Structures are given as C-alpha cells and as structure tokens.
C-alpha cells in the first residue's frame, strides 16, 4: 500500500524521535548504573584502606572482621598471587594462585581492579574489588546477590518519564504532519491538473508551502509561454536550415539521424557512387572517413576537411555538442576554391615579377665589375645591389609562405615540438646580432611545453618577433619570452622588450598587416620585407591561436599570443 506524504512524514518523525529517545534512555541508564557502581566501589575501597591501616598497625586480619558486614569476604594476597588469608576458606593453602584473577591482574597494572564472577573455591557469585598496597593485595568481595543487583540497577523513573514524553510528542507530530500534508495535497492536485489548458484555481494555505505553490503556478504559466516561443523559434530555425545553402544533418550521441535538409542528401548523392536517401551512409562510405575518425577518437569537438571528387571541392565540417550529439555540414566550395587558386597564381606571378629586378641587379653588378671604377665605388655599388637582392629574395619567400598558410594549411606537416628546445636553437642562431646590439634574451618557458604543430611555422613566430626587436627596439635592451598560462587546451606566451616601443599607438592595430610600415624612414634604415609580423599572425592562426600587441607601461613592446596544444 502506498503511503501518503503525511503518513511517510509522520513515520520519519517517529523513527527519528524513537532513535533519539532510545539513545537518551540507554545513555541515562548506563550513566546511572556507572554512578551506582562507582559508589559501591568507593565503599569497598574504604574497607580495603581500613584493612591496610590495621595491618600496618600490627593487627591480625581476624580481628578486623568484626568491623565489616557479615557477608563481606576478605582476602590477603602476596605480590606473587599466593593467598595468605581468606575469611571464607579455612585452609588457604588449598587455593590456587590468584595472580591471573582479573581483579588482581588489573590491580597489578593500575593499583585497583574489579570483577564480577563465581568463586571457584565456594561456587558463590561475588563482586570482587582488589587494591594493591606495596607488596600485597587486599581484596574485598561482596556477594553478588539480589540485594547487590538491585543496588546496581538503574532507577526506572526516568524511563517512565521518557515514555510518557514520547507519547506526547507523537500526538504533537501527528498535528504538525497533518498541516504539512494539507499543503502537499494542494501541490499534488496542481501538478496533476497542470497539463490542462485551463487549470482551476487552487486555494493554497497561508504558509510557506502555500507561497511556494503560488510561485510554482506562476512559473508554470511563464514556462508554457516560453515553450510556445521556443517552438516558434525552432520552426524558424528549421526553415532556415531547409533554405540554407549548406547541407546540414544533426545526429544524436548514438549516431541516430535527428534532422537534415534536402541539400545534405543532394551533396551526399554527388559524392557517393550509389544513390542514397539516408544520411547514415556517411558512416559507411570511405570518402567520409574523417567523420568516422572524428566520432571514434573523441579528442576534439570540431573538425574541418575537404573532399574533392568529379572536379568539385566540398568542405565538410563537424561540431560536437555538450550532450554528445553532433552535426555534419557539407558545402560546395568549388567556386571559392577556384578563386583561391587564382589568388595563389596571382601571388606566384607577383613573385615572378619580383625576380626580374633581382636579375637586373645581378646584371648591373656584372657591369659595374667590368667598368673602370675605384675599389671604393665598386664596393659601395656591390653592397647596395646585394642588400636589395637579399631583400627581394626574402620578400618572395615571405609572400609564398603567407599564401601557403592562408590557402593550403593542410600541406604543412605537424609534429610534437618542444618550445623550450626551439627557443634555445633560436638563441644560438641569433647570438651574433644579439651581441652586436647588446640585447639580452631571457626565456622563461618550462622544459615540458610541447605543441602539436609545424616546427618551421613555430620557429618563424619567435624568429620574426626576435628580428623585429633586433631591428627596432634599439640597443642595450632585454627581450623576455615567457609562458604565463596553461588552461588545458592552450599555452599562453608573452614576448616583451624594454626598448623604444611604438610611440603613436594608432599604429598598433595595423602592425600585422602586410607591408605596413610605421614610417618610410624606418624601412630605409632597417630594410626587411615588411611581412614579418604578418607571418607571425598567420602562423599563430594556423595553430588555432590569437595574437595582440601593446606598449608596456614601463617602455617597450609586448606581444601576447596563444598556441593550441593539440
């Protein structure tokens, strides 16, 4: 039979109060019994002290018996446990050694001992009390008869009082649970009828539970309104998905299809060899192996790849949600890919055009070498031409690297790269220019900092930032590279110097743009392709990070950037 809330609440109160009452009774009974036992022990201890005082005065044990009640048993035992006197036994030589008796053993350790047992010599039950005085034990025993047992037994008056109090409390608890039960019944009736379109008014009691009931009804009404609004927004979202230019399919955590649009099926049929109408084919076709790997490895919440077939290029992305469900998005990016290839080709043409002045410079140098010029003139023109050749060559390399990072990031191989070791290599390679500018380089990166990325791109990040400091920070400065955070997914780094910085801070947001220069004079003084910081930004983005720059309050420039671990 199912109990009502009132009955269960009443039963819980009864159990709790009964346990509490039983605990109080047990504690009080044991406490009173202990007090009575201690009182009897003090009385027996007084007898033992009296016997010891008489023995110290030279009195015989027999003469002391008149001082005690007739039922008292007196024993004298030496330190080896031999009984020297016992008023209840005529021939003590027949008694066993008492060294192992519980009261004697206890008295040996703590000077007093007490035990209740049946005597082996006269088969009577005694309450024994023994106390050690020097090299002997004085044992006083009281017959453990009905009179003694009654004395040690606790008084039951308190027990009767507790029982009466318990009954009174049961009556009070019945009244209290009835009040609670009434409020709960009202809430139950509301819960049963809440799904109706029109719920009847409920007369909740004027108490805390009544206030809760009123609040619940108000919240439920608001919840129904919110549900209607959510359903409306859901319909809008579904319409958007259906009209989207991307093929979208949602899967549950168990890979069950929950929803998809028509474009998703269309793209599937474009990529598969056989016509299909079920999105689940994405788990069986080899061309979609990235999806299977994404689900089985369960390492990341996102993946992005490309599929090329029949002259078309498709982007395939996956997103995993908090509940384990995920979505797969297919998009025809054939046009975008063609545009990208055109841009890549254009960049190549620019690089080709840049090679022309390089060839001209080399021809000019050959002419200079053949003309009757002084050695000083020859050296001057040769050095000028050589510097420009180097600059143009670096420009070509930098442009190619940026284009590759933007348009073909999948062509970069990744591996586990130890950042501390990479910085040590960088510091060794740049030791000469650092010494020429009297720049001190400090690296505060843990030895176990490892990033799964492209080693060359990671090296280019720190190399270009260091070159930037060498060229523009000035002399006698300190460059510090520090890892200041590790949040589980990303490492956070800071690259700082205490040099000149950028006085006009309006340039800071643009220093990562290609070919951006703060001043033409600076370019002429230092050279360079103007792509160093742009390479840094793209390399950081390749590793799923971000970078910002700011002036330090104490002078100099600070770069803050993150690198994803995996």
What is the gist of this entry?
By secondary structure, the chain is α+β, with helices and mostly antiparallel strands. It has helices spanning 5-56, 102-110, 146-152, 157-193, 208-243, 262-271, 289-297, 334-370, 375-407, 419-429, 431-436, 455-472, 520-526, 532-542; strands at 73-78, 83-86, 112-118, 125-133, 136-143, 247-251, 257-260, 302-309, 312-320, 326-332, 415-418, 440-444, 450-453, 478-486, 490-497, 547-551, 557-564.
The helix-and-strand class reads: alpha+beta
CATH superfamily of the largest domain: Histidine kinase-like ATPase, C-terminal domain
Our measurement of the CA-to-CA distance between the termini, rounded to an integer number of angstroms, reads 59 Å
Shape: elongated
The count of DSSP E runs of length 2 or more, i.e. the number of strands, is 17
Radius of gyration: 48 Å
Main beta sheet: 5 strands, antiparallel
CATH topology of the largest domain: Heat Shock Protein 90
Known CATH architecture of the largest domain: 2-Layer Sandwich
What does the model show?
The chain is an alpha+beta fold and 566 residues long. The protein has 5 domains: 145 residues, Beta-Lactamase (2-Layer Sandwich); 69 residues, no CATH class; 88 residues, 2-Layer Sandwich (Beta-Lactamase), CATH 3.30.450.20; 58 residues, Orthogonal Bundle (Helix Hairpins); 153 residues, Heat Shock Protein 90 (2-Layer Sandwich). Helix content is 50%, strand content 19%. It has 14 helices and 17 strands. The chain has a 5-stranded antiparallel β-sheet with strand order 2-1-5-4-3. The protein has a 5-stranded antiparallel β-sheet with strand order 7-6-10-9-8, with helices on both faces. A hairpin with a 2-residue loop joins β4 and β5. The protein is elongated, with a radius of gyration of 48 Å. About 1% of the residues have low confidence.
């Amino acid at each position: 039979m199912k109990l009502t809330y009132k009955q269960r609440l009443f039963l819980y109160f009864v159990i709790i109060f009964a346990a509490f009452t039983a605990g109080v009774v047990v504690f009080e009974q044991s406490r009173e019994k202990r007090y009575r036992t201690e009182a009897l022990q003090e009385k027996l201890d007084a007898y033992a002290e009296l016997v010891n005082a008489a023995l110290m005065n030279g009195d015989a044990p027999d003469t002391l018996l008149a001082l005690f009640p007739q039922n008292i048993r007196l024993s004298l035992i030496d330190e080896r446990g031999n009984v020297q006197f016992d008023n209840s036994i005529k021939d003590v030589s027949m008694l066993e050694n008492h060294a192992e008796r519980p009261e004697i053993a206890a008295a040996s350790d703590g000077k007093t001992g007490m035990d209740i047992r049946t005597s082996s010599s006269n088969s009577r039950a005694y309450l024994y009390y023994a106390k050690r005085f020097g090299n002997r034990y004085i044992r006083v025993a009281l017959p453990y008869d009905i009179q003694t047992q009654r004395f040690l037994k606790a008084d039951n008056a308190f027990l009767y009082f507790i029982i009466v109090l318990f009954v009174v409390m049961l009556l009070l608890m019945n009244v209290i649970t009835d009040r609670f039960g009434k409020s709960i019944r009202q809430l139950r009736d509301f819960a049963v009828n809440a799904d109706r379109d029109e719920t009847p008014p409920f007369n909740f009691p004027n108490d805390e539970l009544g206030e809760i009931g009123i609040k619940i009804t108000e919240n439920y009404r608001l919840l129904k309104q919110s549900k209607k609004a959510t359903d409306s927004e859901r319909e809008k979202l579904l319409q958007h998905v259906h009209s989207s230019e991307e093929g979208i399919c949602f899967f549950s955590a168990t890979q069950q299809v929950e929803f998809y649009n028509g474009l998703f099926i269309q793209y599937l049929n474009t990529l598969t060899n056989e016509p299909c109408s079920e999105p689940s084919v994405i788990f069986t076709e080899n061309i979609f192996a990235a999806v299977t790997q994404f689900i089985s490895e369960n390492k990341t919440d996102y993946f992005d790849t490309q599929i090329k077939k029949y002259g078309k290029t498709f982007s395939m992305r996956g997103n995993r949600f908090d509940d384990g469900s995920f979505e797969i998005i297919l998009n025809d990016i054939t046009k975008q890919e063609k545009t990208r290839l055109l841009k890549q080709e254009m960049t190549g043409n620019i690089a080709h055009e840049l090679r022309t002045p390089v060839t001209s410079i080399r021809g000019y140098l050959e002419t200079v070498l053949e003309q009757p010029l002084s050695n000083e003139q020859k050296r001057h023109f040769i050095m000028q031409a050589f510097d420009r050749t180097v600059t143009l060559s670096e420009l070509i390399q930098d442009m190619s690297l940026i284009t590759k990072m933007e348009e073909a990031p999948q062509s970069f191989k990744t591996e586990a790269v130890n950042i501390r070791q990479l910085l040590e290599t960088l510091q060794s390679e740049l030791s000469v220019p650092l010494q020429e500018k009297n720049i001190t380089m400090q690296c505060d990166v843990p030895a176990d900092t490892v990033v799964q990325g492209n080693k060359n791109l990671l090296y280019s990040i720190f190399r270009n930032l260091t070159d930037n400091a060498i060229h523009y920070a000035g002399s006698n400065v300190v460059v510090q590279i520090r890892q200041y955070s590790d949040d589980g997914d990303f490492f956070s780094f800071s690259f700082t110097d205490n040099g000149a910085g950028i006085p006009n801070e309006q340039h800071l947001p643009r220093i990562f743009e290609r070919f951006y220069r703060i001043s033409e004079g600076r370019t002429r003084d230092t050279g360079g392709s103007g792509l160093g910081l742009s390479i840094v930004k793209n390399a950081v983005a390749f590793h799923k990070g971000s970078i910002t720059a700011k002036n330090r309050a104490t002078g100099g420039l600070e770069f803050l950037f993150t690198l994803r671990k995996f």
